[in-house]
Amino acid sequence: MQTSVITPGQLTDIMFGSVYLFVGVVVGTFALLRRGQGIRLLAWLGLWSAMFGTRLMTESPAVLGVLPGWLQKATPLISVSIVYLLLPVPALAWLELSLDKMRQFLRVVIAIGLLVGFSGIGVFLWKYRLLIFNNILSAVALVVLMGVILVPRLCRKYLVLPNRGVVVIGVLFFALEGLYFNLSRVFHYRTILITGSLALGVLLFSLGYVAVLMFLAGEHRLRSIEDELAIAREIQSSILPKDNPLRKGLTVASAYRPMTAVAGDFYEFVRLDDNRMGVLVADVTGHGVPAALIAAMIKVAMQSVTNCADNPGRVLGELNRILSPQIGAQLVSAAYLVLDPELRMAKYSAAGHPPLLWLGRGKLERVESNGLLLGVLQGQEYPVRELRLQPGDRLMLYTDGVMESENAKGEAFGDVKLVETMHANRAMAPSQFVEELLAEIRLWQSDSLEQQDDITVVVIDVEASP
């Protein structure tokens, strides 16, 4: 009975193969679970390490002897596939560090490497018949990379390296080992088996170090952005009303639900005198910081038109005149309502905004008094609609995020659903109704879907005794 003896060379392959395979799996798993700068580089490095480790393991008879029969039969194909694809994977890793013409060069290397690799795999019965082309391409790519890395000016132009020195050491070590290996074969010297594994380990470590630096830098930038967004959110909150106004004859409730940290929706209550007040609701196209900046501009612009705040048409015309030169390609929809509870009168005008909903006297009316969006054309006039209010009437201003909320089927909440909700909850106080409306919208949306747009709602009830 013969016993299998593990030679020093096999033991070296098993040891380094296990390490490379384990490191590759750990790094690859980490890359799959995280996002950010440098993660794709880590993913390719992990795959590279795992492939090299698998190749070392499959070349050891001691390892093959303990594998299941079906896996032993597949081992030749696995080994040949790894050999042929060991060029495209490192090239993809370097692609994450490259700029300009170097990226173009590496894309060509990857394309040719994949062509040669899959062709070689396709004829794997002849095994390494096409490997000479793979070796030539690898040598050319390595020479070009070394030339770029070793010349500081070229490195700065074509590569993104947080620490060039570490990468230079890794590449030189890898290149010198390759030179040593090839010269040894030419002069029939006996090579030291451990050098190849160590050389690749040094190169992978240097690139992994760079990837970690990029990842940490990305995390730092992300934290900085989050801190800045928190400040922006506080600033935006400061320009919105702190409380709903208290006016004899009126009950007011409002809600503001941004889609992101900051939003393009804006609303404001304007005090005209002890009795009258104005309500402005605006919606900037787009989302996030750019829209929030324009919303802040609306706040400033509104403060400059207080002399005509009792005339909705003039207010919107002045806002259009002030904002048009400032907001560029972005546009703003707006609605402005002036209320006089003592006279039970209201005046309304809008600029491309969803209609005012007026529920009273047993019916609901959509009040349309629209001109063009703010920012489209200078010198626009905005028509004004006068409303004669009755005790118990309810008025609602809102942004289109209310109606555009979608369910899992892609169906919008819509105007019909909004009207149904208003009728069904007519007896609720404004604050309760606003909460119920938001709950209906959340219920309409699928749990897997995020809020699709900013939502602002202002509800006003006319009391029986002004």
What does this structure look like?
The chain has 466 residues and is of the alpha+beta class. It folds into two domains: 8-227, Rhopdopsin 7-helix transmembrane proteins, CATH 1.20.1070; 240-462, PPM-type phosphatase domain (Phosphatase 2c, domain 1). Helices cover 54% and strands 15% of the residues. The strands form two sheets. Strands 2, 3, 4, 5, 8 and 9 form a six-stranded mixed beta sheet that branches. A five-stranded antiparallel beta sheet has the order 1-11-10-6-7, covered by helices on one side. A hairpin with a 2-residue loop joins strand 6 (356-360) and strand 7. The mean pLDDT is 83.
What ranges have pLDDT less than 50 throughout 5 or more consecutive residues? none
Give the class-level CATH name of the largest domain.
Answer: Alpha Beta
Total domain units: 2
Q: Superfamily at the CATH H level of the largest domain?
A: PPM-type phosphatase domain
**In DSSP terms, counting alpha (H) and pi (I) runs of 4 or more, how many helices?**
15
SSE run: HHHHHHHHHHEEEHHEEEEEEEHHHE
Largest sheet: 6 strands, mixed
Taken as a percent bin, the fraction of beta residues is: 5-15%
**Arithmetic mean of pLDDT:** 83
- What is the CATH topology descriptor of the largest domain? Phosphatase 2c, domain 1
- Percent range for helical residues? 40-55%
Radius of gyration: 34 Å
Q: CATH architecture of the largest domain, please?
A: 4-Layer Sandwich
Structural class: alpha+beta
The N- and C-terminal alpha carbons lie at a distance of 108 Å
Count of individual beta strands = 11
General shape: elongated
